[in-house]
Amino acid sequence: MNAVRGIFSDDSRGIQLNRLYRVFGKTVAVRDVTFHVPAGSVFGYIGPNGAGKTTSMRVLATLDLPTFGDAFVDGFSVIHDPELVRRRLGFMPDAFGTYRDVSCAEYLDFFARAYGLVGRQRSQRLDWVTDFTGIRGMRDKPIAGLSKGMKQRLCLGRALIHDPSVLILDEPAAGLDPRARIELRKMIGNLAADAKTVLISSHILTELAEMCDRVGIIEQGQLLATGTVEEIKQAQQHTRELTIRVIEQMPAAEAFLRDEENCESIVVDGALVRFEFHGDVADQARLVTQLVQQGCLIAEVTSHQKSLEDVFLHVTEGLVQ
Ligand SMILES: Nc1ncnc2c1ncn2[C@@H]1O[C@H](COP(=O)(O)OP(=O)(O)OP(=O)(O)O)[C@@H](O)[C@H]1O
């Protein structure tokens, strides 16, 4: 991206990682990662433990510097314009320190003051944040007494207090019960509807699939795939489990399939033959035609698509550095 410092264009708004590297000694935590999150969209950053998600997010939040490359928030570089980046960005870390003896209202008020909000502007913003995150009823509660879900809401409130255009949320759903996850999803949907740019990380593809416009899958510091969940699924659909009902000439069908390089793990069970097939839909159609040409009478073909979790496991292979 040709981000011009301080000049806003539709292209430069949002988030851009540009050949980003972060090296710790012998560990390349982030390796040559480039992606763009257009303004007003939600991008899911998905990867196993130690993949490099938090490291990239910390660089974006100006808490760490790249070893090489750069990252931009609304066109401002984290290296050259960290102050301008911070004004535009709200960061919700995966673990956050709180002051046990202060109330939720005092906590949010402290951060509102730190961002320079004064008078009516501050009280209006505090009202908006407490309503948006649903913590109005707990304003006077000490933070020490909050549940995990309530602490997450408070932390999101803190990230929103200065009305940032870009939000970086590091595993906000971790440890939440199903109801709290649904509520978090609603809040993120509302932020997107309000034209915020959101980068949100998780270990779990299905958790983000519904709320993200696009996702990026990272492992061992490298971005392995980006696109919509459907695009990633399609790209990985080269292996499927096929079940074929052969009502005549099963021995010929079995012999034919065993000779085919793209058919594996063949199991015959009465009139059904099941196997792993490497190929796309057109390859599958050709295979069925060839079986018919062998004299096999085919009554039914069933293709079992991979689930999102299968795709994630296939893409990442579970490598941890
Ligand atoms: N300050 C540091 N010093 C040394 N190594 C680090 C440091 N921070 C991160 N790493 C290493 O960089 C790699 C990426 O870590 P990172 O925390 O970014 O992964 P992650 O994808 O956020 O993982 P998780 O899902 O477990 O939070 C890991 O191998 C980690 O040990």
UniProtKB/TrEMBL annotation:
Boundaries of each ABC transporter domain copy?
Answer: 15-245
Spell out the InterPro entries in the cross-references: AAA+_ATPase (IPR003593), ABC_transporter-like_ATP-bd (IPR003439), ABC_transporter-like_CS (IPR017871), P-loop_NTPase (IPR027417)
Matching SMART domains? AAA
The cross-references to Pfam families, in alphabetical order and at most eight, read: ABC_tran
Q: Which PROSITE patterns match?
A: ABC_TRANSPORTER_1, ABC_TRANSPORTER_2
| Molecular function terms, GO-annotated | ATP binding; ATP hydrolysis activity
Query: What's this protein's family per the entry?
Result: Belongs to the ABC transporter superfamily.
Instruction: Report what the protein is called.
Output: Putative ABC transporter ATP-binding protein YbhF
Provenance organism: Roseimaritima ulvae
What SUPFAM superfamilies does its record include? P-loop containing nucleoside triphosphate hydrolases
Keywords per UniProt: ATP-binding, Nucleotide-binding, Transport
